[in-house]
Structures are given as structure tokens and as C-alpha cells.
Amino acid sequence: MMIDGRANELPDFQVFRTVIKYCLVIIIVPVLSFFSVKVVLFDGILRLEPITSSVYSAVIAVIVLHVTLGLYIYRAYNEAEKTPPKPVKKD
């Protein structure tokens, strides 16, 4: 009977791992995009004023955030359709 309990925990752990990965991506990628676009493009190449480059970089970071959230929702929706419903145990 212990094996049945472990089998039910494994998919839950995989879901938890996937959520943690996406949480890290949703936090890290917009922050990296903000600083990389600000330093390289707006400050380095275009030589904009600091406040202007920060505003434009924030807009880029918000767009990147929405794309990553959209990818997470898309993946979650597609996985939900693929996963068959769990059988209900009767005790």
C-alpha cells in the first residue's frame, strides 16, 4: 500500500518542481531583461538620459513578464488537457 501513496506523490512533486521553475523564470528573466536592455541598448548604444532609459527598460521588463506568464499559462492549460483524470479510490 505504501507504493500507491508514493505513486500519487510523484506527479504532485513534478507539478511543484515545474511551478518553482516557472516562478524563478518569471522573477529572474524580467529583472535580467531590465538591466541588460538598460545598460546595453539604452545607456550604451542610444545614450539616453538615465530616467528615460529606466522607463523604457521597465516597459520592456513588463512586456517580458507578460510573455513569461503567458507561456506558463499556456503550458499549464495544455498539460491539464493531456492529463487523464485520477481514478477515485473507494475504501
UniProtKB/TrEMBL annotation:
Membrane spanning residue stretches: 20-42, 54-74
One record GO biological process: vacuolar proton-transporting V-type ATPase complex assembly
Pfam families to which the protein is assigned, alphabetical: VMA21
Keyword Metal-binding: no
Alphabetically ordered keywords of this record: Cytoplasmic vesicle, Endoplasmic reticulum, Membrane, Transmembrane, Transmembrane helix
Source organism superkingdom: Eukaryota
GO CC annotations on file: cytoplasmic vesicle; endoplasmic reticulum membrane
Keyword Protein biosynthesis found: no
Protein's name in the database: Vacuolar ATPase assembly integral membrane protein VMA21 homolog
Organism: Galleria mellonella
